[in-house]
Amino acid sequence: MNSGSRPERRPGLLRRRPAFRRVWMSEVVSLLGDWMSFVAVSLLALGGEGGGVVALALVMVGHHLPIALFAPVAGVLADRLDRRWLLIATSVVQGALTVGMLGAAVAGNVVGLQVLVFARASVGALRLPAQSAVLRHVVEEDELLEANAIASATWSVMFAVGMAFGGLIAGLGPAAALALDAASFGLSALFLRGLPPMVAEGRPAEGGMLSALASVRRDMVLAWRHAWERPPLLDAVLAKTPVHMANGGALLLLNLLATQLPFAGTGALTLGVLQCVRGAGTGVGPLVGVALVRRGLRGERAATGAVWVTFGAIAVFAVTRHPAALLAIVLAWGLGSGANWVLSSSEIQRLSPDRFVGRLSAVDNLALTVGLCATLLGGAVLVERTGVPAASAWLGLGAGVVTWLGAQWMLRRRAAAVSAVPAVSAVSAVSAVSAVSAPPPLPPETERS
Question: In the predicted model, is pLDDT for residue 179 greater than 80?
Fold first, then answer.
């Protein structure tokens, strides 16, 4: 090729990485079913026999809390066992449990539904670190940011479409949405069957399932120590938690407003529309954040901006009741939280050795989920006692802001402590200071729930 010719454009990541395409397709069908059923289940909990604000919060907590409870086990399994096998097995079991949820919904059994939601989420919790770790096997290191952006955009599109269709289908009852959700898990497993084995760093599984379970505490401590000695990595691991604390209280308010101000005709349709717009924001936000980084904005500044866009949007959301304004605000809310998710996830995958990435993703999931569930439950109790729906959003926002400020203070102290450690030689001292004082730039990319 002569020097004057135009460079040949590479095909998109989904075209040039067939294994990544299989992972992506499995997530498309699974997420679509999940969000369609989520609308129906939430409305059933809020309006069914024995329902109310706390019942709604319990269903939402049941959807998320297992991520925290099982995060240590999930992270160790993802780093010791075949990640492909974990994804297939959990998809099959989740499909079977969704059939049970269908039976409980048809019977109007809110308590049984809550138990099955918790059980299904517990199985799903085992797949989250494996999903993050699998990207290391299906794309190159310099493609991780692009892969995460695609995954986030996919999550957002499926969230938006699933919520919109879920709002429509909820009018017919929850059975249809749950039946489609159960089928989606089976289709997801079929897509994953074509993947090759994916064990951390190409090693065979170390002793199998029992050995992995016996080593959970030791392995998680090793992973945490690795991050603790590397402040930029620790920052990425903790970055989502303050945002999700704010999200918890605001999500409860969003569900309540949909039933109290059904501007789309019904509460189900209004909830679907609001969640659809928020989901669109979570897809666009990462694209904006990544574009700013590519134009020269430092990665940590982009991440900080994403956090404060989320906080600001939730603050305005708590005091706004006009339909058009609500739509604009939930869009901004999605922009900030989506950018926060992708920027932090990409950094965890980039800065973690393959042997630790599953466990550090689990720590990330554990921290953010505990924060989300705490503000969901605390917000629900506060709303029932005060009768003020916005109280949940203010509780979550206050907790998120305080946690973010505390985390930034702690990270600065860690960076100073690590850089002050006496080095063996002048060369190693320079290397240590550089590692903690200069946050690594995000890799270039060509480009999420």
Answer: yes
CA atoms of 302 and 34, how far apart (whole Å): 30
CA–CA distance, 446 with 444 (Å, rounded to integer): 7
Res. 7 pLDDT band, cuts 50 70 90: very low
Burial environment of residue 115 by CB neighbours within 10 A (0 to 12, 13 to 18, 19 or more): middle
- Of residues 115 and 201, more confidently modeled: 115
Question: In angstroms, what CA-CA distances link 198 with 14, 107, 388?
Answer: 19, 41, 50
Extract the tokens encoding 3: 């020097």
- Pair 384, 52: CB distance under 8 Å: yes
Amino acid at residue number 169: I
CATH of domain 18-437: 1.20.1250.20
Confidence (pLDDT) at 435 = 40
Dihedral pair phi/psi, residue 128, rounded to 5°: -65, -50
How many CB atoms lie under 10 A from the CB of residue 312?
15
pLDDT at 244 (0 to 100) = 96
Sign of the alpha-carbon dihedral angle for 257, 51, 68, 94 = negative
Let me know: does 136 contact 354? Beta carbons within 8 Å: yes
Mean pLDDT of the chain: 81
Give the start-to-end residue ranges of the domains of the chain. Answer: 18-437
pTM higher than 0.90 for the full model?
no
Instruction: Calculate ∠ Cα 335-360-373, nearest 5°.
Output: 55
Q: What is the dihedral sign for C-alpha 149, 151, 152, 158?
A: positive
User: What is the Cα–Cα distance from 270 to 255, expressed in whole angstroms?
Assistant: 9
Reported as a pLDDT band with limits 50, 70 and 90, residue 204 is: low
CA atoms within 13 A on the CB side of 213: 5
Q: Is 168 or 410 the better-scoring residue by pLDDT?
A: 410
CB-CB contact of 241 with 341 (8 Å):
no
SS3 for 449? coil
In SS3 terms, 375-440 reads as HHHHHHHHHHHHCCCHHHHHHHHHHHHHHHHHHHHHHHHHHHHHHCCCCCCHHHHHHHHHHHHCCC
Q: List Cβ neighbours of 391 (8 Å cut-off, separation of 6 or more).
A: 379, 382, 383
Q: What is the mean pLDDT of residues 259-265?
A: 86
